[in-house]
Amino acid sequence: MRVDFHTHIIPEDFPDLAAKFGDPRFPVMEKTCDCGAEIFIQGKSFRKITDQAWDIEKRIEDMNNEGIDIQVLSPIPVTLAYWSSPEAGLELSQIQNDFIASIAKEYPERFIGLGTVPLQDVEIAIQEMDRAVHELGLKGLQIGSNVNGQNLDDPALEPFFAAAEKWNVPLFVHPWATLGGERMPRHNFMYMVGMPSETALAAGSIIMSGLLDRYPKLKICFAHGGGALPYLLPRMDKGWEVWPHIRKTEKPPSHYANKLYYDSLVYDPVNLQYMIDKFGAEQIIAGSDYPFLLREAPSGKVVDLLEGISDEDARLIHGQNALKFLGIHEMATSK
After folding, report:
1. How far apart are CA 115 and CA 110, in angstroms?
2. Which 3-state string (H, E, C) describes the chain?
3. Does the predicted TM-score (pTM) go above 0.85?
4. Rounded to 5 degrees, what angle do the CA atoms 320, 324, 325 make?
5. In the structure, what pLDDT confidence band is assigned to residue 333 with cuts at 50, 70 and 90?
6. Taking each helix axis from N to C terminus, what angle separates 269-279 and 229-242, rounded to the nearest 10 degrees?
7. Span 74-325: which CATH code?
């Protein structure tokens, strides 16, 4: 079984919240043709998307052509909008959660849904997590890598992580509002450099904070192979060793990094082998970033290109780890 853990989706009738709330920072989607649309923010083009981002039949056709049994659906990160009012953020979250849940319910053998919550208000976020998981049946949440510039180790967020552990809700951390954005307008560096750097900062914040000592059953997966984190860990371990005054954990950072999950979207088999050697194959989950241009096609291609990987490890990465992470032990498929 092949599971693509990292895919994004948006409703075709995505509402114009910029007009409703009088705030041009909300993303606005304008159809350009039956086959695509353009997302605008503050009147400027943010990105172009194809109908693969909302057309379920097209998505299933692509899955069949690429040998993917199941996709895990999550919102497009720009729609997180943590900067908005809690009320607007909740409405935006509920629209997307209802949409994703409806697809997972209609096509239970092909799609698994992840929801989203307005983390700018932790109490409301916990309430929507409860609804998304326990009423809608979503299997986890996608969250952003920071909340309005506050890293994920901000004390205000701890009740959210406590609730996620209590309810056994897996969390998929995706970079957004990347650090150093003002220095990355050229070369599409936001996607190529900003996002991997942002992911490393988010993962490092979780690791160094002691959060995983306090909530050892918390399940967190980081996008894009953890970004730069795998290559920074030796330096983080050294810092933890030489600066005892910064320590908030019982053990060095690499110990906690081995408890996290990472998607396989690193493109290069050499990088994937490094991750396997560092974290173990059981912590890596195949994901493609479908349907965007930087996606891997098909999902898990880098696994297939890795020489010498055992059949067991390949099966873990291609699908079994995703289902285990999401708490799904068996799932039949039919194409």
Report:
1. 17
2. CCEEEEEEECCCCCCCHHHHHCCCCCCEEEEEECCEEEEEECCEEEEEEEHHHCCHHHHHHHHHHHCCCEEEEEECHHHCCCCCCHHHHHHHHHHHHHHHHHHHHHCCCCEEECECCCCCCHHHHHHHHHHHHHHCCCCCEEEECEECCEECCCHHHHHHHHHHHHCCCCEEEECCCCCCHHHCCCCCHHHHHHHHHHHHHHHHHHHHCCHHHHCCCCCEEECHHHCCHHHHHHHHHHHHHHCHHHCCCCCCHHHHHCCCEEECCCCCHHHHHHHHHHHCHHHEECCCCECCCCCCCCCCHHHHHCCCCCHHHHHHHHHHHHHHHCCCCCCCCCC
3. yes
4. 115
5. very low
6. 40
7. 3.20.20.140
Q: What is the pLDDT of residue 83?
A: 97
> For residue 50, what are its two tokens?
């194809």
Task: Say which residue the tokens 């239970």 belong to.
Answer: 108
